[in-house]
């Protein structure tokens, strides 16, 4: 599949590995893919991110990811659903952190060292790469670009899509920023 990636998409994947290395993560996650996309310049994805006002909001995105990790990876939607049945996630997190220290539920930030220099991709990150292929093929595109990675990140349920949605970047808004208001959900122009 990697042979179908454009040069920019390959740079994004390599950038995700660099993001993981920078923070000492044992594996490459969906979050690392998004952060690598934010560093790309001159691509369709960077244009869409800028159009949605996300280019200069790295600190805000980082804060949202930190809060999600603190909740053990639960999305805001998960937290709200649990609140609907009387479970206060913030109270539980507070009690766990009181007993075991701040960040006790944080996920994805191991201090393991990878002596080989290789960082594996999490199942979620692999799923995003596969989903980007489906997005590209669904649009009739032969190659996978950064824009397909970005759309896949917004379409896959989880923390990254949740954080992006909090910042106004849903599948629909990203699609509109990439292809204009006249394109339908499959990327084809609507009939007039």
Features:
192 residues; mainly alpha; Double Clp-N motif; globular; disordered C terminus
Overview of this structure, please?
- This protein has 192 residues and is an all-alpha fold.
- It has a single domain, classed as Clp, N-terminal domain (Double Clp-N motif, Orthogonal Bundle), CATH 1.10.1780.10.
- 59% of the residues lie in helices and 0% in strands.
- Keywords: Repeat.
Please render the helix and strand layout as text.
Blueprint: H1 7-23, H2 30-39, H3 44-51, H4 58-70, H5 76-84, H6 89-100, H7 123-139, H8 146-155, H9 159-166, H10 171-179
Helix pairs in contact: 1-2, 2-8, 3-8, 3-10, 4-9, 7-8, 8-10
Pfam family, one: Clp_N
Domain Clp R: 2-184
Protein name: Peptidase
SSE run: HHHHHHHHHH
Percent in strands: under 5%
- Per CATH, the superfamily is Clp, N-terminal domain
In the CATH hierarchy, the third-tier topology is known as Double Clp-N motif
CATH top level class name? Mainly Alpha
Shape: globular
**Average pLDDT, to the nearest integer?**
84
